[in-house]
Input
Amino acid sequence: MSGARDAKIAPTAHYTAYVWRRLALPYSGAYATRRGAALYWTLRAAGEWVTAVAPGVPSMAQYLALRHLAIDHALVELDADRVVEIGAGLSRRGTTWALDRGVAYVEVDLPHMVAHKRAAIAARFDGAVGARLRERLTVVEHDVLAPDFGAWLAEQLGDAARPAVIAEGVMGYFARPERLRIARSIAEALAPRGGSFVCDARASEGGRAIAIAARVLKAGIKLVTRGRGAAEDFASDDDVRGFFTEAGFRESQPVDTRHVPGAPRVPSPAKVWRARA
Ligand SMILES: C[S@@+](CC[C@H](N)C(=O)[O-])C[C@H]1O[C@@H](n2cnc3c(N)ncnc32)[C@H](O)[C@@H]1O
Output
């Protein structure tokens, strides 16, 4: 893995953390940063005209809210007893699941992001709450492209009865062969226990609003990641299904966002998928 290349993805984690804060999601205040706020307001000023001239196109914040809440919803439905979230960044989900649901949660990221997250946890959670959080939430460094990722992940999943692996806003940055490698490792690690992998996937099919939204989204990502940008989209939902099958999953389906509490009712260029090992 090229650390410098992937470090460029990190600013998007600051951006999204600020979106969770704007949505007032539980514990989001602990992880919102000034850097995220600056990115949020810059992008909002740059992107507002598009939603104004192309009605029906979701704003970046709506798209991200839909994605985040759909993943939360899938996780609730899975009733996971152990969660490993890769590329967790500054997400508030692990803290919520650990503190409010008592679930063992492992967040995985690159060293600089892990250092940032640990510092935020140390600064914001002390006393009994901090102790409870540290008991259930582990924030660890690991490169998901490293050759030992699959074996390492299997160890993290331990003897969980209903394990889940999450990747939010992560897979889309990798080219398809790398994406496949990561998904294969996850399928292999989950296979002996059963369990699910939940992640978002962009497909280029859909109507005009979706096509415009996808273009706006990719332009926004390119701006925030200083040119690193996102990799190619899947061609269609069938292409996404084929990808999961090739990676070794038994079955995959998109989350039905009509049943996601609090989610904005907007068309989205990305769906959240649940793949079963
Ligand atoms: C776009 S951010 C998403 C953060 C979070 N999931 C969210 O939705 O707010 C992508 C995250 O993946 C992490 N990342 C990038 N490449 C990685 C790799 N090879 N191994 C582990 N984490 C990686 C980045 O540091 C960053 O925190």
The chain is about 50% helix and 15% strand.
